[in-house]
Amino acid sequence: MENVIELPVRTLPVRTLMGSGPSEIDPRVLQALAQPPIGHLDPAFVGLMDEVKDLLRYAFQTENRLTFPVSGPGSAGMETCFTNLVEAGDKVVIARNGVFGQRMAEMATRLGAEVVTIDDEWGQPVDPQKLEAALESNPDTKVVGFVHAETSTGALSDARLLAGIAQRYGCVTVVDTVTSLTGSPLYVDDWGLDAVYSGAQKCLSCVPGIAPVTISDRALEKINQRQTPVSTWFHDIGLIDGYWSESSQRSYHHTAPVNSIFALAESLRLVKQEGLERAWERHREISQTLVMGLDRLGLEMMVDDASIRLPQLSVVNVPQGIDEAAVRSRLLQEDGIEIGAGLGPLAGKVWRIGLMGHSCRSENVERLLDALGRVLTDLPKVSSCSG
Amino acid sequence: MENVIELPVRTLPVRTLMGSGPSEIDPRVLQALAQPPIGHLDPAFVGLMDEVKDLLRYAFQTENRLTFPVSGPGSAGMETCFTNLVEAGDKVVIARNGVFGQRMAEMATRLGAEVVTIDDEWGQPVDPQKLEAALESNPDTKVVGFVHAETSTGALSDARLLAGIAQRYGCVTVVDTVTSLTGSPLYVDDWGLDAVYSGAQKCLSCVPGIAPVTISDRALEKINQRQTPVSTWFHDIGLIDGYWSESSQRSYHHTAPVNSIFALAESLRLVKQEGLERAWERHREISQTLVMGLDRLGLEMMVDDASIRLPQLSVVNVPQGIDEAAVRSRLLQEDGIEIGAGLGPLAGKVWRIGLMGHSCRSENVERLLDALGRVLTDLPKVSSCSG
Predict the structure, then answer these.
(1) Which residue in the set A44, A259, A270 is minimally distant from B207, CB to CB?
(2) How many CB atoms within 10 Å of residue A337?
(3) Tell me, what's the pLDDT at A248?
């Protein structure tokens, strides 16, 4: 464009991303992202869509036909599942043990559902007995929602057990796997999960803003039996399916985020190449190194029980008298390392340290432990009353 | 990651994008897109968010505080405007003169609105007299929706005139500027437009999947007076505002698509650098060359009247006896040029040729005219009964 004066791209600081997401991105994924776009109805793009769906099925361990990336962040994935599955008046049981269970309850309430919540302490998994009791008292429940890996607390729930209970009571499940997908074992089909959503910017190490979703035939049957149309056009799975399905006559719904899908395809190829089991093992091993190092620094994990502690997200208690925001700020400014703050009732009380996907590397653990050790030694203690 | 075997990034075909979007992307925008992500609460990102909002205000020609990119494609922008402004039972007048006016009517209907439609022939602008008559007959109308530049027909409506009428009847307007933003004159504040959405992949020449939105104080007032909560959590402007507003305490809503916003910032800087008036002039001039060239090839524009014809999207009648899909396919396969098909009732009858943003260059016009001339001469005529 001859009218445009040369102007340099403004560069952003480079960060070591060890928060709750986005995680770091493999250079090959960034390279795929930056390929010039092609049309969203181009045969080459349609071929890529089919590849992405197959690779997502591998990541989710499912044969579900309806497996696709929602054109929006993880919470748009959550919205897609709830908006399609829940009708006004439906009774819905939601397990709350962190921010994202609470968000599920908010979405279901906005849709006019009769929401029954079961609560567990933050940092604890969802208690299967509470779910069983809630369904026994509410046999007319249609949908059960819970979070597999709570990003706000670092606790893992037993998705297989919970889905089994829901199924015995004839309910379909909505399951949040935003932080678990490719970081912790997840078997959508074997465990009988129905409507499952995730995000791309966690263990997949892709750009934020795209949300893998898979929908079982049982869930699809409930959607097909709706008495009322889905209240949003954008999230209507019937319409999205018309665009993403393998039918020869794909119908235009919205313009797909083609560059994000270039990147997603590449990040999923990397997952396939490494293999899910090896990826899970890598997250376990490297987080173990982190936990031991934190222990040497005198720091305690919020989730005591190692069997329910997420390897990809370690939630650490802030020691008494430490200004947690000052620590995060110094790590960012002096070392370029991002770690996450506590959310909701945990604000000011914990740090959330992510080792997700491409961020989950030994050198990142070493850099963080070094920097954290220095900052903690260095930092003036604040008086305990403000701690 | 030592476990990963080297695998090459699969390259996609390079296309000359002259369809209805995505348009081509300036290499500087692709370079910005591919910068390693930083956290969505990182101070450097928060600074970028403020810059993006300022640049969007320039592009929209508005002072609206609430001006931000929705984390989704253009239709998510549409959904954001309707979901927040329309309550069940509200009377809404929608002008339909193409696919996107029809989509507005569908969204409003799903929200439980009482929808009154006014219809104009495809290829014609919205008739202000019909709007006036509809509002006179329906004085309890709350919201008026119309499309500024219809992407399905290439016709421009007089947004200033239509908004003026709506305002006289005490209505707020929802205006689709997906294809007009930075390609045709648009003055949100001067024209009194209320809830205005666009897409990034048209004249902004950014990646698809991000939707600029601006909301006037009048519209915000209507939203604040809602009797019922917004039915979706993801599109709730109150929550989005808490994340995008300048308040010192930004509250987390969802993880912003940070890489797409890197790209959007760069594409908006290019718009600012060129200047809106020069960008509009460039679209006018170069499309004039295209129209003259098409005329020499014996092709006719669907929109006769040059004064309402979009420079950034030329809709061309397919000549009698020509297999339009075969032409598009040969352009794509032999020359790597994408042009668009007709949508809805125009399927098979028109081609849509985009000259949007970075795609709007003389060399693209020359390449297309050359290729189209050759393909049309070359192509066997099909019998008129199948034409």
Answers:
(1) A259
(2) 23
(3) 61
